[in-house]
Amino acid sequence: MTFAASVVRTAEGDGFTPPGPHDFDLPAIGGGHDTFEMFGQSFVLGVTKPMLQLVLAAILLFAFFYAAARKRAMVPSRLQFVGEGFYGFVRNSLGRDIIGHDFAKFVPYLFTLFFFILLNNFFGSLPFVEFPTFSRSGMVYGLALLSWVIYNAAGISKHGFVGYIKLQTVPGGIKGPILALLIPLEFMSNILVRPVTLALRLFANMFAGHLLLILFALGGEYILTEMSIQYAPVGILAWLMFIAVAFLEMLIQFLQAYVFVLLNAMYISGAVADEH
Amino acid sequence: MQALLAAPLAKAEELNPLLPHAIEIVLSLVVFGLLLLAVWKFVTPRFEQIYTERTQAIEGGLAAAETKQAEADAKLADLEQQLSEARHEAARIREEAREQGAQIIAEMREQAQADAARILEHGKTQIEAERQQAVTSLRAEVGTLATSLAGRIVGESLEDDDRSARVVERFLADLETIEASQAAGGGEN
After folding, report:
1. Is A58 touching B (CB cutoff 8 A)?
2. DSSP three-state, residue A28
3. Whether A171 contacts A186, CB under 8 Å
4. Taking residues B58-87, what's their average pLDDT?
5. Which residues of B are less than 8 Å from A108 in CB distance?
6. Which residues contact B151 (CB under 8 A, 6 or more apart)?
7. A167 touches chain B (CB under 8 A)
8. Which of A99-113, A221-235, B31-45 bottoms out in mean pLDDT, i.e. has the lowest?
9. Which chain B residues are closer than 8 Å to A8 by Cβ?
10. What is the mean pLDDT of chain A?
């Protein structure tokens, strides 16, 4: 407590700014300073690094998987073997095992989604890139919105609108006045809240992880370079923590991609399930 | 302290990270949508095709192997049957040959015995004929010799053929009787 207070005090005195949301508000590439106002906030107008990362990820993924799938060899090359392994992982463990019957038409979506999120998350740990694309909430909202559209559309196309709403809001085997309580609750949790939690989970994990890394990196640097020598061990500790957290972060990057797609698959599975 | 902490926090509150950059929503949807379309069209069908083809190839290979195995089994059974038939046939032929051989040997033996008997018979007949001839010629000679000897000894002419012939005959008859009795006596001894 005393130490933290002294760091902040010293920091304040010497102009150290603790990392915060402004570290995620990257400037436009090319140095444009135009901004625009929305939601009472001012946003950078121009192409930013996460936008380029998003496009780069799409190009890299398509190039890799196209090259892997192109030859369609019965006896696969190494590249094709790896590509097939990646594809089979999503297809079988996320598609077939969770959606079950009729899973095939959702596999391209789940497959693309998983590796798109995974690569964009790994950008957070990739040297020289080092920024998780999905620590920008707008990027995640897009994908969460698409998820919401897809699982609801899948359910409606299978059961019809009324049948689908009934499936999602009326729990099986329950009758009587308690339904008046349950139906709004189920509607809320199955239709309204899902995209929000889906988006927040991914966004907040990427945001917090990156913030933590910045804190350890810059804090350690500041302690080692600007503060008196007696605090040096703390600075070194901060950098060790940075390394440890960076490894933890890589695990989280994978897990969040997996969870996002897993939940997508489960929502689709629930939406196209036979009526209870 | 309160004032010191407030300054950076106030700065942080300028931005709410939960509020989205609208362009990013559109961009993420467009980029992901394009990637999804490209993957849907060019990547996943190929992986699925490889998967299906490989499954078929493996299953087809297994089926072909099963067919081949069945064919080989049938052929083996056929060959085994043929072999057993051939063995049976060989045994039958061997048995037949043995029977024929035995028959031939028996026939040969019979024939040899018949030949032997015939040759024996022939020999006997010949010997008998020769003996008869010898007896006849001996009888004539012995008669002449004996007559001339007796004539010399007795000094009496026995030129009279009739008489001498009768004497000789009688003598020989006696001789045969003696021989016969001797033979009988000898046989008893």
Report:
1. yes
2. coil
3. yes
4. 94
5. 36, 39-40, 43-44
6. B157, B158, B159
7. no
8. A221-235
9. 4-5, 8
10. 87
φ/ψ of A170, rounded to 5, equals -105, 110
Do A142 and B14 lie within an 8 Å CB cutoff? no
Residue A22 CB coordination number (10 Å) = 13
E strands along chain A, which residues?
A: 35-38, 41-44
Three-class secondary structure of residue B117 per DSSP: helix
| Interchain pair B24, A138: CB under 8 A | yes
Enter the pTM of the model. 0.70
What single letter denotes the amino acid at residue A256?
Q
Residues B115-142, mean pLDDT to the nearest whole number:
89
Give the 3-state secondary structure of residue B28. Answer: helix
Over the stretch A244-275, which tens digit does the pLDDT of each residue have? 999 999 999 999 999 999 999 999 999 998 86
Question: Which token pair is B154?
Answer: 């007795």
In this structure, what token pair is assigned to residue B92? 């039958």
Q: DSSP states of A172-190 as a string?
A: TT--STHHHHHHHHHHIII
pLDDT band of residue A113 (cuts 50, 70, 90) is: very high
Radius of gyration (Cα) for chain B, nearest Å? Answer: 68
The percent of residues in chain A predicted with pLDDT above 90, rounded, is: 49
Q: Is B162's pLDDT higher than 60?
A: yes
Contact yes or no for A25 and B15 at CB 8 A? yes
